[in-house]
């Protein structure tokens, strides 16, 4: 179970995370992250902990399936709270395929979304040492396109 102090409950907090935060989409879920947001409802003296909320619509499945998806996502986020900056707001929105997905698939998608949001490789960039980025940088040729090896 997700501790009470780490739960998003207010509509305004959900809206802040979705509208003003960054988004990372995966095949089974979409994660919205508003880093370091201050708590508008608190005293402002201490930094509030990271808080998470979940959105699982009827498109995911019947009530039993939706509740199972929410329980799985709560468990997964609870284990990853220490990776989130203090005061951040997270909204995890399950997509229709999440109802049929295994626990490990949800975990992989959540980890990939957090990695992208928390400083992973930017979208559209090749990581250093990747096959497409390093081979062109090294000047290697594609033998399928230039069988003779002639200079262009």
TrEMBL record:
Gene3D superfamilies: 3.30.230.10. Residues 121-152 are annotated as: Disordered. GO terms for cellular component: ribonuclease P complex. It catalyses: Endonucleolytic cleavage of RNA, removing 5'-extranucleotides from tRNA precursor. PROSITE patterns: RIBONUCLEASE_P. One of its GO terms (biological process) is tRNA 5'-leader removal. The keyword tRNA processing applies. Residues 129-141 have a biased composition (Low complexity). One of its GO terms (molecular function) is ribonuclease P activity. It holds the Pfam family Ribonuclease_P. Transmembrane segments: none annotated. It comes from the Bacteria. InterPro entries: Ribosomal_Su5_D2-typ_SF, Ribsml_uS5_D2-typ_fold_subgr, RNase_P, RNase_P_CS. Its EC number is 3.1.26.5. Keywords: Endonuclease, Hydrolase, Nuclease, RNA-binding, tRNA processing. It is an enzyme of class 3 (hydrolase). The keyword Nuclease applies. HAMAP family: RNase_P (MF_00227). Consists of a catalytic RNA component (M1 or rnpB) and a protein subunit. Belongs to the RnpA family. RNaseP catalyzes the removal of the 5'-leader sequence from pre-tRNA to produce the mature 5'-terminus. It can also cleave other RNA substrates such as 4.5S RNA. The protein component plays an auxiliary but essential role in vivo by binding to the 5'-leader sequence and broadening the substrate specificity of the ribozyme. PANTHER family: RIBONUCLEASE P PROTEIN COMPONENT. This is Ribonuclease P protein component. It comes from Streptomyces sioyaensis.
